Amino acid sequence: MGDKSGGLLSALSTPVLPTSAREAEDLNVSYPSQASSSVGAPYPSTGSSLARSDEGEDEEEDEGVLFYVNKTGFPIAEHVYQRMWDFACKKHPDGKELASRCKSYNCAVEVPVPKEPKVLSMKTSVKAKLKAVQSYMEALDYNHTGTQFFDILKNRPIISLMEVCKKMIQESLPIKCLEATVLGVYLTNGISGLERFPLSFKSKFSGKSARHVVLGVYHNGLYGSLGMSRRTSLAYKSLQFESLSALFRKTGTFENFQSSYAEIGHKVARVAIGVPVSHDSRSFETIVWGNFIINGYWKKPRDDMFVEIDKYAKEMRTKMRTTVQVPSFLPCPPGVDKAASLPYTQQLQKPKLVSNNVLKKSLSSDNLKVMDSATG
């Protein structure tokens, strides 16, 4: 972003907001001015746009827009940069004096650039590798500027999202929860035996809706999560939960999402669990963000709901087993289905995920479980 952005990022590192607004932003709320029924709907042609709902649902406005999405790429356009200053002046108690004071500095603050973790070359446990990935994302810091720097469209193919991740690492700018989820996929690609899947939440606070997303992880019978949030308890969960439902319910001494939300006064209204994401960074498949959905989460009988979550987790595990990948120019060994190999794979005897198209078909047709509050 150059020297001119240093003062802005420093000014917004600890934003001062009204109590209600701050609590709402803790869950990464976005307030679109126009309803959008499609995740992939075009943005206005102004160079940046209002952030939309994770699930394509309407959201409320509250004294204007809480954050925008940068659509101009890098370097950031002047009008997008100016809007970041306007946001800072609106939220900070010093108002416009903040902008004039920061812009009058002769030199910008030197911001350290974190080093990308090379987890595949680390001779440590998977748990330690995940912690290294989380530490890197936390070093980037959470984005308080009111503008999401990187445009993440959920219906883009994996190969396109991975290119955005490369840009995130190159620019080393603060990120929000959706950017962190995609970046977590990129940084964990190739870790043997690790499965990744999106976990999305919708919660209620003071009549407002708040949405949040993290990257769920599974390895060797244990679950956890990676991500970013204003509340650290709503992001990283160590790889220590013995079941997927344990990530949500209050059990044992581990801090789970249900207790984390309760601590800040939010009620979880909706939970969506996606499909395991391919480790092929050049795949043209898309990420399935919500395949198992629970509406009216706090109204459901807890025991029955957690049983259904674990049933879905078991179903995922039976379909996320790997096969030997064979390059197209080599003959197929006996017993290996060459057609099931992932595209662009050039490594022998290295486990990879079965194509997500197969998994999506098997999980989405007859086995899609939706527990609607209207029927539950």
Please explain how this structure is put together.
The protein has 376 residues and is α+β, with helices and mostly antiparallel strands. The protein has ten helices and twelve strands. The strands form three sheets. The chain has a seven-stranded mixed beta sheet with strand order 7-6-5-4-8-9-12, with helices on both faces. Helix 3 packs across helix 4, helix 5 runs antiparallel to helix 7 (177-188) and helix 6 (158-171) packs across helix 7. It is globular and about 60 Å long. The termini are far apart.
Which descriptors apply to this entry?
376 residues, 12 strands, alpha+beta, 15% strand, 10 helices, single chain
Summarize the structure in short.
By secondary structure, the protein is of the alpha+beta class. Helices cover 29% and strands 15% of the residues. The strands form 3 sheets. It has a 7-stranded mixed β-sheet, sandwiched between helices. A 3-stranded mixed β-sheet has the order 1-2-3. Strands 10-11 form a two-stranded antiparallel sheet.
